[in-house]
Amino acid sequence: MISKRHLFFNMIIVIFPWLTLLFIGKSNFKRYSVAGVFIIVFEIFNHLYGNKKKWWKFYDKKDSFLKDELPFSIGPYAPFSMWLLKYSYGSFKKFLLLNVLADGIFAFIMMDIMKKFKIIRLNRLSRIQFFFYIHYKAYLLYGVQYLYEKWRSRGRRIESLV
């Protein structure tokens, strides 16, 4: 059974990040949504693997991917990735710096807060291992966006020739 605290938390981490995309702009949404969807799908597989390895533990008694990991996968990852790409795509150093900062805040501060509120705690990972677990996906995200931009520009060149 999901506690009210956990349900409220899940609603916040799913709804709030997606609402912020109302301010990203239609063209930016279209431009970065492919990478955002990719990161959701990739993150679902990562969460399934991490759950199987018991890298973290949710405080609610009955384990359920739908109420525990899935809100993290569909909630903050895509919108946050799209915002990071909007403000840093084209400058890989800036992108990495922002990702290190965001991933560090999540791994070293937010995890403590979620543990204090009895939502989730790390189980078989140290904080630094968890940081690397969430950070390595930044390289994939940037790579997907790079390939998508390359594909889009190629399509535009072909259209201009026709």
TrEMBL record:
Keywords: Membrane, Transmembrane, Transmembrane helix. It comes from the Bacteria. The chain crosses the membrane at residues 7-25, 31-49, 95-114, 130-148. This is Uncharacterized protein.
